[in-house]
Amino acid sequence: MRFDEAYSGNVFIASSNDYEASRAVIYGMPMDFTVSFRPGSRFGPARIREVSIGLEEYSPYLDKSLSDTAYFDAGDLLLPFGNAARSLDMIGDFVKRLLADGKFPLGLGGEHLVSWPIIREMYARYPDLAVIHIDAHADLREHYEGEPLSHSTPIRKAAELIGGSNIYQFGIRSGTREEFEYARKSINFYPFDVYEPLREVLPKLAGRPVYVTIDIDVLDPSAAPGTGTAEAGGITSKELLAAIHAIARSEARIVGADVVEVAPVYDPSEQTQITASKLVREMLIGFVK
After folding, report:
1. Which of 170, 183, 243, 245 has minimal Cβ neighbours within 10 Å of its Cβ?
2. What is the C-alpha to C-alpha distance for residues 141 and 25, in angstroms, rounded to an integer?
3. Is the peptide bond preceding residue 44 cis, with omega within 30 degrees of 0?
């Protein structure tokens, strides 16, 4: 993708058209080729951008504005529809370039499998990487119905690459018995809740490079019905915002992040995509130093 001309579609509110001068880069990964229930998250990145026009640029939580952070919206990657393997390679190549250019990558999904090549490139760049994973689902399967490229496998792949002791999971309330047994044995595993256990963990991550991946379905379906695999018993948007702010105020070195699994077609009220857009605003303001 060329960066000498602005993305022609809708961009996230207050984004710059100057790639070189920007510290962070927003990019979309419109892929939902391996989902196990309802497709539609490939439309998430575009709609998150579109509804951002309703946001204020100022965050009263962090007392900063989007104008304090220079960021570029690169638009959606042009992924080959139906080709998961090639799409993952393209995402990895794109993120590798952003890291080489010294940018903070903030990805919009798309299904959660898109996080796997990002984590792989982050680990190549930062050998002491830690991952904060906030989700309703463990995503620790080795395969789904025999297919290793599945939105239920990215964190298992990450654990096998960087070591489970470097992965911190929060909010998990769904998975197979085998996934939960693996998580309890091999992962820093904090099921059901997010804010309180996260607050206890963050001091341990002081100074370390950390990648943050958030699946919107960590929220209760009453707060975010627009997702492919909704799961009852989730947290509130207030708690998720508090978690983002705790990360932002911590001594961890946040090196990248993503928000995934927003599927706008299932939420005509638009509360899911509006919430996701606000999360992105807080991450831009809080994570990008």
Report:
1. 245
2. 30
3. no
CA distances from 246 to 31, 145, 197 (A): 30, 37, 11
Q: How far apart are CA 11 and CA 31, in angstroms?
A: 19
**Cβ distance 256 to 104 under 8 Å?**
yes
Structure tokens at 198: 């996260």
Inter-residue contact 26 to 72 (CB < 8 Å):
yes
Domains of the chain by residue range? 24-287
β-pairing verdict for 64-65 and 58-59: antiparallel
For the record, the structure tokens of 164 come out as: 């489970």
Instruction: Over range 201-219, report the average pLDDT.
Output: 98
The model's pLDDT over 23-61, given as tens digits with 9 standing for 90+, comes to 999 999 999 999 988 999 999 999 999 999 999 999 999
Reported as type and span, the H/E element at residue 181 is helix 177-186
**119 token code pair:** 């984590």
One-letter identity of residue 65 = S
Reading the block at residue 220, the tokens are: 């209760």
Q: What homologous superfamily does CATH list for 24-287?
A: Ureohydrolase domain (3.40.800.10)
Rounded to 5 degrees, φ, ψ at 114 are -65, -20
Grouping H, G, I as helix, E, B as strand and the rest as coil, residue 163 is coil
First-last CA distance in the chain: 25
d(CA 135, CA 202): 17
Whole-prediction pTM: 0.96
Handedness of CA 100, 84, 179, 200 (dihedral sign): positive
Task: Dig out the tokens for 161 from the structure.
Answer: 């690459």
Residue 7 confidence (pLDDT):
54
3-state secondary structure of 109: strand
